[in-house]
Amino acid sequence: MQKVRSWLSVAVTPVQWVVDLPEQSWTWVHDRLQEREGLLGENRQLRAQLMLAEREVQKLASLTAENVRLRELLNSSQKLDEQVRATQLIGVNPDPFIHQIVINDGSQNDIRVGQAVLDQTGVMGQVTATSPFTSRVLLVTDANHAIPVQVNRTGLRSVAYGRGDYNQLELVDITQTEDIKVGDLLVSSGLGMRFPEGYPVAKVTLVERDPGREFTRVLAKPTARLSLSRQLLVVSTAHQQQQELVEEQ
Q1: Which helix (H) or strand (E) holds 116?
Q2: Residue-wise pLDDT tens for the chain (249 aa)?
Q3: CB of 229 closer than 8 Å to CB of 50
């Protein structure tokens, strides 16, 4: 009987494997899904941390030039930092004449009209409308958008206007004698208190001086990847933060 039981046990083993296969398969799939969800969550967290780190790097060039021009800043008090929030692009306006995007945060996440929006390489635009869960952002290249800027090398201030072209901004009121040249970095000047000071906006691509005209024609290419970036940052200036505190009171 011992031998019979052994042979029967061998004969039944494949059946036991087949019966146990669904449970083993479900366990394997469940473990893989949990691992995938964990990896996706970790990936999102790392992306947000990377954007915060890159935001700090953006300001280095501006701060370096500023320290050279104004050495007394070395003894000044520490600047009040801006408040930032990581967000994500979820939509693009299909109208080719309107440069506008939609992000997946709204008034429920303390997003307010007027806040600046950045990607890893520069200023994207500003919030123009909010709903509880989404917000609309007008890009710097839209024909109805303007942003105060300054030449990082010299401190020359101007205003960069959108031209309806994702690769082009135009500076106005630059006289023939002003020191500006191709390759100069334009950063946000902070005037108007909407955009925080010192973030990259564009690089000069054309300086055209015509003796017959009073002003120099200056074109620049945005540093932000306007048609590529999906992970973004919403930034509140110190002035905007103070306004929010006053409104809450």
Answers
A1: strand 116-118
A2: 666 566 655 565 565 566 666 766 767 666 777 788 888 888 888 888 888 777 777 777 677 666 665 554 334 334 445 688 899 999 999 998 999 999 999 999 989 999 999 998 999 999 999 999 999 999 999 999 999 999 999 999 999 999 999 999 999 889 999 999 999 999 999 888 889 889 999 999 999 998 888 899 999 999 999 998 888 999 988 777 777 766 666
A3: no
CA atoms in the 13 A half-sphere facing the CB of 235? 29
- Please state, in angstroms and as integers, the Cα–Cα distance from residue 192 to each residue in 58, 121, 148, following that order: 21, 22, 7
Q: Alpha carbon of 151 to those of 81, 90, 156, 215, 249: distances in Å?
A: 22, 33, 5, 16, 39
| Amino acid at the residue 46 | L
Two structure tokens written together for 166: 């994702």
Q: How many residues in the chain? A: 249
d(CA 101, CA 53): 24
Alpha-carbon gap, residue 43 to 19, rounded angstroms: 38
Cα of first residue to Cα of last residue in the chain, in angstroms, is: 89
